[in-house]
Amino acid sequence: MADYNKIQDTAAFIKQYISTPPSIGIILGSGLGALTEEVEKEMELSYNDIPGFPVSTVEGHAGKMVFGKLGGKQVMLMAGRFHYYEGYNMQEVTFPVRVMKALGASTLILSNAAGGMNPSFKVGDIMVIDDHINLFPEHPLRGKNDDRLGTRFPDMSEPYDHKLIELAMQAGKEQYLDLKKGTYIGLSGPTFETPAEYKWLHIIGGDAVGMSTVPEAIVAKHGNMRVFALSVITDLGVIGQVHKVSHAEVLAAAAAAEPKVAGLVNALVAKM
Protein backbone atom coordinates (compact mmCIF):
# COMPACT_ATOMS: atom_id res chain seq x y z
CA MET A 1 0.00 0.00 0.00
CA ALA A 2 1.34 3.45 -0.95
CA ASP A 3 2.16 5.69 2.03
CA TYR A 4 0.26 8.93 1.37
CA ASN A 5 1.99 10.90 4.14
CA LYS A 6 5.46 9.83 3.00
CA ILE A 7 4.61 10.92 -0.56
CA GLN A 8 3.43 14.33 0.68
CA ASP A 9 6.51 14.78 2.89
CA THR A 10 8.89 14.06 0.01
CA ALA A 11 6.95 16.38 -2.30
CA ALA A 12 7.03 19.14 0.35
CA PHE A 13 10.81 18.76 0.64
CA ILE A 14 11.27 19.09 -3.14
CA LYS A 15 8.89 22.09 -3.32
CA GLN A 16 11.40 24.08 -1.25
CA TYR A 17 13.85 23.93 -4.16
CA ILE A 18 11.64 24.59 -7.19
CA SER A 19 9.95 27.84 -8.22
CA THR A 20 7.42 26.37 -10.67
CA PRO A 21 5.60 23.03 -10.35
CA PRO A 22 6.32 20.54 -13.16
CA SER A 23 3.58 19.60 -15.62
CA ILE A 24 5.50 16.60 -17.02
CA GLY A 25 7.50 13.89 -15.28
CA ILE A 26 10.13 11.96 -17.25
CA ILE A 27 11.90 8.75 -16.21
CA LEU A 28 14.94 7.67 -18.23
CA GLY A 29 16.09 4.07 -18.61
CA SER A 30 19.49 2.38 -18.90
CA GLY A 31 22.02 4.44 -20.84
CA LEU A 32 19.44 7.06 -21.85
CA GLY A 33 20.57 9.98 -19.71
CA ALA A 34 21.44 12.34 -22.60
CA LEU A 35 18.04 14.03 -22.42
CA THR A 36 19.21 15.74 -19.23
CA GLU A 37 21.49 17.87 -21.43
CA GLU A 38 18.45 19.14 -23.37
CA VAL A 39 16.81 20.52 -20.23
CA GLU A 40 17.23 24.20 -19.34
CA LYS A 41 18.20 23.28 -15.81
CA GLU A 42 16.93 25.18 -12.81
CA MET A 43 18.32 22.75 -10.28
CA GLU A 44 19.33 19.13 -9.62
CA LEU A 45 18.84 16.89 -6.62
CA SER A 46 20.71 13.66 -5.95
CA TYR A 47 18.44 10.80 -4.90
CA ASN A 48 20.65 10.51 -1.81
CA ASP A 49 19.49 13.95 -0.69
CA ILE A 50 15.74 13.39 -1.12
CA PRO A 51 14.02 12.04 2.02
CA GLY A 52 12.24 8.74 1.48
CA PHE A 53 13.75 8.23 -1.99
CA PRO A 54 15.35 4.92 -2.95
CA VAL A 55 18.82 4.96 -4.53
CA SER A 56 19.60 3.60 -8.00
CA THR A 57 22.19 0.80 -7.89
CA VAL A 58 22.49 -0.06 -11.59
CA GLU A 59 25.26 1.07 -13.93
CA GLY A 60 23.91 3.47 -16.55
CA HIS A 61 21.55 5.15 -14.07
CA ALA A 62 22.89 8.50 -12.84
CA GLY A 63 20.69 8.73 -9.74
CA LYS A 64 19.60 12.36 -9.88
CA MET A 65 16.47 14.43 -10.43
CA VAL A 66 16.66 17.39 -12.81
CA PHE A 67 14.19 20.30 -12.81
CA GLY A 68 13.79 22.86 -15.57
CA LYS A 69 12.31 23.51 -18.99
CA LEU A 70 12.16 21.19 -21.97
CA GLY A 71 10.31 22.06 -25.18
CA GLY A 72 8.93 25.12 -23.41
CA LYS A 73 7.32 23.02 -20.64
CA GLN A 74 8.20 22.70 -16.98
CA VAL A 75 9.56 19.18 -16.38
CA MET A 76 11.07 17.04 -13.68
CA LEU A 77 13.34 14.37 -15.05
CA MET A 78 14.72 11.29 -13.34
CA ALA A 79 18.09 10.20 -14.67
CA GLY A 80 17.95 6.64 -13.37
CA ARG A 81 15.04 4.56 -12.11
CA PHE A 82 14.50 1.80 -9.56
CA HIS A 83 13.86 -1.82 -10.44
CA TYR A 84 12.13 -4.72 -8.74
CA TYR A 85 15.22 -6.91 -9.31
CA GLU A 86 17.32 -4.54 -7.18
CA GLY A 87 15.38 -5.78 -4.18
CA TYR A 88 12.94 -2.89 -3.94
CA ASN A 89 9.27 -3.66 -3.49
CA MET A 90 6.75 -2.24 -5.93
CA GLN A 91 5.85 0.66 -3.61
CA GLU A 92 9.51 1.75 -3.66
CA VAL A 93 9.88 1.22 -7.42
CA THR A 94 6.86 3.44 -8.14
CA PHE A 95 7.31 5.96 -5.31
CA PRO A 96 8.83 8.62 -7.63
CA VAL A 97 5.71 8.53 -9.84
CA ARG A 98 3.56 9.27 -6.79
CA VAL A 99 5.84 12.19 -5.89
CA MET A 100 5.70 13.55 -9.46
CA LYS A 101 1.91 13.51 -9.30
CA ALA A 102 1.93 15.19 -5.87
CA LEU A 103 4.17 17.96 -7.27
CA GLY A 104 1.69 18.69 -10.06
CA ALA A 105 2.78 16.54 -13.01
CA SER A 106 -0.20 15.35 -15.06
CA THR A 107 1.81 13.50 -17.73
CA LEU A 108 4.48 10.81 -17.39
CA ILE A 109 7.03 9.97 -20.09
CA LEU A 110 8.98 6.73 -19.71
CA SER A 111 11.90 5.26 -21.63
CA ASN A 112 13.68 1.94 -21.39
CA ALA A 113 16.18 -0.39 -23.03
CA ALA A 114 14.46 -3.55 -24.24
CA GLY A 115 14.98 -6.81 -26.09
CA GLY A 116 13.21 -6.90 -29.44
CA MET A 117 11.14 -9.97 -30.35
CA ASN A 118 9.40 -8.66 -33.44
CA PRO A 119 11.26 -10.11 -36.46
CA SER A 120 11.10 -6.72 -38.22
CA PHE A 121 13.06 -5.01 -35.42
CA LYS A 122 16.80 -4.40 -35.37
CA VAL A 123 19.19 -3.16 -32.67
CA GLY A 124 18.92 0.61 -32.37
CA ASP A 125 15.24 0.83 -33.34
CA ILE A 126 12.93 2.99 -31.22
CA MET A 127 9.58 1.40 -30.37
CA VAL A 128 6.70 3.55 -29.17
CA ILE A 129 4.79 1.44 -26.62
CA ASP A 130 1.07 1.25 -27.39
CA ASP A 131 0.19 -1.49 -24.86
CA HIS A 132 1.81 -3.78 -22.31
CA ILE A 133 1.56 -7.20 -20.71
CA ASN A 134 2.34 -7.26 -17.00
CA LEU A 135 4.26 -10.39 -15.95
CA PHE A 136 5.81 -8.99 -12.78
CA PRO A 137 5.22 -11.26 -9.76
CA GLU A 138 3.99 -8.36 -7.58
CA HIS A 139 1.37 -5.79 -8.63
CA PRO A 140 2.14 -2.17 -7.66
CA LEU A 141 -1.46 -1.60 -6.49
CA ARG A 142 -1.61 -4.71 -4.29
CA GLY A 143 -2.79 -3.94 -0.77
CA LYS A 144 -5.33 -1.59 0.74
CA ASN A 145 -6.27 1.22 -1.65
CA ASP A 146 -5.97 4.88 -0.65
CA ASP A 147 -8.73 6.75 -2.49
CA ARG A 148 -6.70 9.97 -2.24
CA LEU A 149 -4.24 8.42 -4.71
CA GLY A 150 -6.68 6.74 -7.09
CA THR A 151 -9.57 4.36 -7.51
CA ARG A 152 -9.48 0.75 -6.30
CA PHE A 153 -9.93 -0.70 -9.82
CA PRO A 154 -8.25 1.56 -12.41
CA ASP A 155 -9.31 1.29 -16.04
CA MET A 156 -6.46 0.10 -18.29
CA SER A 157 -8.21 0.18 -21.67
CA GLU A 158 -5.77 2.91 -22.78
CA PRO A 159 -2.59 2.47 -20.73
CA TYR A 160 -0.57 4.64 -23.12
CA ASP A 161 -2.23 7.84 -24.30
CA HIS A 162 -3.34 7.59 -27.95
CA LYS A 163 -3.00 11.32 -28.59
CA LEU A 164 0.56 11.38 -27.24
CA ILE A 165 1.42 8.36 -29.40
CA GLU A 166 0.06 10.19 -32.44
CA LEU A 167 2.09 13.32 -31.60
CA ALA A 168 5.23 11.20 -31.17
CA MET A 169 4.73 9.47 -34.51
CA GLN A 170 4.35 12.92 -36.15
CA ALA A 171 7.54 14.13 -34.44
CA GLY A 172 9.33 10.98 -35.59
CA LYS A 173 8.33 11.62 -39.22
CA GLU A 174 9.55 15.20 -38.98
CA GLN A 175 12.91 13.92 -37.70
CA TYR A 176 13.09 11.15 -40.34
CA LEU A 177 12.96 8.43 -37.67
CA ASP A 178 11.55 5.03 -38.60
CA LEU A 179 9.61 4.62 -35.36
CA LYS A 180 8.09 1.24 -34.56
CA LYS A 181 4.98 0.64 -32.46
CA GLY A 182 4.32 -2.38 -30.29
CA THR A 183 3.48 -4.17 -27.07
CA TYR A 184 6.01 -4.20 -24.23
CA ILE A 185 6.19 -7.09 -21.77
CA GLY A 186 7.45 -6.36 -18.26
CA LEU A 187 9.35 -9.09 -16.38
CA SER A 188 11.17 -8.95 -13.07
CA GLY A 189 14.71 -9.82 -14.33
CA PRO A 190 17.61 -9.54 -13.74
CA THR A 191 18.41 -12.37 -16.14
CA PHE A 192 17.99 -11.81 -19.83
CA GLU A 193 15.47 -14.19 -21.38
CA THR A 194 16.18 -17.70 -22.64
CA PRO A 195 15.46 -18.51 -26.31
CA ALA A 196 12.33 -20.43 -25.24
CA GLU A 197 11.15 -17.48 -23.13
CA TYR A 198 11.65 -15.05 -26.01
CA LYS A 199 9.65 -17.38 -28.27
CA TRP A 200 6.81 -17.68 -25.73
CA LEU A 201 6.74 -13.93 -25.03
CA HIS A 202 6.43 -13.20 -28.74
CA ILE A 203 3.68 -15.82 -29.16
CA ILE A 204 1.59 -14.22 -26.40
CA GLY A 205 1.78 -10.83 -28.12
CA GLY A 206 5.02 -9.13 -27.12
CA ASP A 207 7.14 -7.05 -29.48
CA ALA A 208 9.73 -6.08 -26.86
CA VAL A 209 10.59 -7.17 -23.32
CA GLY A 210 12.24 -5.43 -20.39
CA MET A 211 12.48 -5.13 -16.63
CA SER A 212 10.77 -1.79 -15.93
CA THR A 213 8.12 0.70 -17.14
CA VAL A 214 4.97 -1.39 -16.54
CA PRO A 215 4.77 -0.75 -12.75
CA GLU A 216 5.35 2.99 -13.26
CA ALA A 217 2.74 3.16 -16.02
CA ILE A 218 0.16 1.36 -13.85
CA VAL A 219 0.73 3.71 -10.90
CA ALA A 220 0.56 6.75 -13.19
CA LYS A 221 -2.79 5.55 -14.55
CA HIS A 222 -3.95 4.97 -10.96
CA GLY A 223 -3.16 8.65 -10.37
CA ASN A 224 -5.07 9.66 -13.52
CA MET A 225 -1.92 10.75 -15.37
CA ARG A 226 -1.41 10.56 -19.14
CA VAL A 227 1.37 8.12 -20.03
CA PHE A 228 3.76 7.89 -22.98
CA ALA A 229 6.56 5.35 -23.19
CA LEU A 230 9.21 4.18 -25.62
CA SER A 231 11.76 1.38 -25.82
CA VAL A 232 15.17 1.44 -27.43
CA ILE A 233 15.78 -2.02 -28.89
CA THR A 234 19.22 -2.85 -27.52
CA ASP A 235 19.33 -6.60 -28.19
CA LEU A 236 17.31 -9.16 -30.11
CA GLY A 237 15.24 -12.09 -28.91
CA VAL A 238 14.06 -13.08 -32.37
CA ILE A 239 13.94 -16.83 -33.04
CA GLY A 240 17.27 -17.84 -34.57
CA GLN A 241 18.87 -14.53 -33.55
CA VAL A 242 19.25 -15.00 -29.78
CA HIS A 243 22.91 -14.46 -28.95
CA LYS A 244 24.86 -13.84 -25.76
CA VAL A 245 24.17 -10.37 -24.44
CA SER A 246 25.68 -8.31 -21.60
CA HIS A 247 24.56 -5.18 -19.76
CA ALA A 248 27.57 -3.38 -21.27
CA GLU A 249 26.28 -4.14 -24.78
CA VAL A 250 22.80 -2.93 -23.81
CA LEU A 251 24.28 0.34 -22.50
CA ALA A 252 26.34 0.79 -25.69
CA ALA A 253 23.29 0.26 -27.93
CA ALA A 254 21.20 2.63 -25.80
CA ALA A 255 23.94 5.27 -25.88
CA ALA A 256 24.07 5.06 -29.69
CA ALA A 257 20.33 5.78 -29.84
CA GLU A 258 20.45 8.54 -27.20
CA PRO A 259 20.52 11.55 -29.56
CA LYS A 260 17.45 10.25 -31.43
CA VAL A 261 15.55 9.60 -28.18
CA ALA A 262 16.47 13.04 -26.82
CA GLY A 263 15.36 14.73 -30.03
CA LEU A 264 12.11 12.79 -30.17
CA VAL A 265 11.11 13.45 -26.54
CA ASN A 266 12.04 17.11 -26.84
CA ALA A 267 9.84 17.44 -29.95
CA LEU A 268 7.00 15.52 -28.34
CA VAL A 269 7.02 17.76 -25.25
CA ALA A 270 7.03 20.85 -27.47
CA LYS A 271 3.92 19.55 -29.28
CA MET A 272 2.01 18.82 -26.07
Description of the molecule:
Helix 2 crosses helix 5. The chain has six helices and nine strands. The mean pLDDT is 92. It has one domain: Nucleoside phosphorylase domain (Rossmann fold), CATH 3.40.50.1580. By secondary structure, it is α/β, with parallel strands linked by helices. It has a five-stranded mixed β-barrel, surrounded by five helices. The longest helix has 25 residues.
* Terminal residue distance: 32 Å
Report strand %: 15-25%
CATH topology: Rossmann fold
Q: Outline, from the CA principal axes?
A: globular
User: How much is the radius of gyration in Å?
Assistant: 17 Å
Number of strands: 9
Assembly annotation: single chain
Stretches with pLDDT under 50, minimum 5 residues: none
Please outline the major beta sheet: 5 strands, mixed, barrel
Strand order of the largest sheet: 5-8-7-6-9
Q: Taking all residues together, what is the mean pLDDT?
A: 92
User: What is the succession of H and E elements?
Assistant: HEEEEHEEHEHEHEH
Reading off the top of the CATH hierarchy, the class is best stated as: Alpha Beta
Residues in helix, %: 25-40%
Q: Enumerate how many helices there are, as a single number.
A: 6
Overall tally of domains: 1
Structural class: alpha/beta
> CATH H-level name... which superfamily?
Nucleoside phosphorylase domain
